[in-house]
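Work Package 3 (structural annotation) set out to generate three-dimensional models for the target panel prioritized at the project kickoff. During this period the team completed the workflow that converts sequence records into discrete structure tokens, so that structures can be stored uniformly alongside our sequence database. As a representative example, we reproduce one entry of 179 residues exactly as it appears in the project archive.
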Amino acid sequence: TDWRHSLEALERAWGANLPPDIAVWGLEQAPADFHPRFSARRRRYRYTIWNGRRALPLHRRYAWVHPQRLDEEMLDQAAKVFIGEHDFAAFGRPPQGENSVRTVYTATWTRCGDHLWFEIEGNAFLQRMVRRLVGVMAQIGRGEKPLAWASEVLASRESARCAPPAPACGLCLMEISYE
């Protein structure tokens, strides 16, 4: 950009003009060849499920309200299937090109009361990949499919074998790492 003032002044200017849903927490000078998407090395997402017996209307905006109890142990075992370098073609399409091989570094489920959080970190993700992973794991967590099904879907590379994606409302990009 052609900004001629300090980074602090730019941060204040953005803070004064951005909508209240967006906050700037800090700025750094980037190299001239920096690209926000292609320079990223890791991305971390969180998917939230409200897994209480009663649906809470306020949770619908930020979580998949899923009143049927999910087996956290089965969810976590299914998540481990996806760790490592795999061809995730069954779970989404590449944003560009044909390469659907991605590396997942961590994939874990955590329960806190009636909330279930799926945290996944990888080098990159396909379109709808995280939501489709959650959809597959939810079917396993409900007891509708066996644990081995996660590996079968992954190996198939066929999107038709995959579960429908979980609702978008539960997905949140938590962090992007550039180093």
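DSSP finds four helices and six strands in the chain.
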